[in-house]
Design goal:
CATH superfamily: Glycoprotein, Type 4 Pilin
Number of domains: 1
Largest sheet: 3 strands, antiparallel
Helix content: 40-55%
Structural class: alpha+beta
Strand order of the largest sheet: 1-2-3
Order of helices and strands: HHEEE
Number of helices: 2
Oligomer: single chain
Radius of gyration: 19 Å
Number of strands: 3
Length: about 120
């Protein structure tokens, strides 16, 4: 019985030590995904002369086989895609799934630089 209690205490301490690192790893994974999606968007834009329409979103990349499937962010939600005259933005709303936030709840975003000779429509 005492052995089970000791094992339980060690497991709990290990979990408390490891969990904060998992949160940062998820943010790192989201940054990698956002970067990869940005690269695919630039490739699409270089070949077509424009970025996908936001009404269609990133589904266009799957439809035309630039991606095999749409990745979900590490928290299980779809990445958001917007397009304005400065170019595309891909983002995750972070751990909390709400706009804004700090720390692990902060939004993660990367504006893909406009591809040369490409219009944002």
């Amino acid at each position: 019985m005492v052995g089970l209690v000791i094992v339980g205490v060690i497991a709990a301490a290990g979990t408390l030590t490891v969990m904060p690192h998992c949160t940062f790893l998820k943010a790192d994974q989201a940054r990698l995904d956002i970067d990869a999606i940005g690269k695919v968007l630039r490739l699409y834009a270089q070949k077509t002369g424009h970025y996908p329409d936001p009404a269609v979103g990133l589904d266009e990349l799957v439809r035309l086989q630039y991606l095999s499937r749409l990745p979900l962010d590490p928290w299980g939600r779809a990445y958001l895609y917007t397009l304005d005259r400065d170019g595309p933005t891909v983002m995750s709303l972070g751990r909390d799934g709400a706009p804004g936030g700090t720390g692990p709840d902060a939004d993660l975003s990367s504006r893909a630089p406009a591809a040369e000779g490409v219009s944002s429509r």
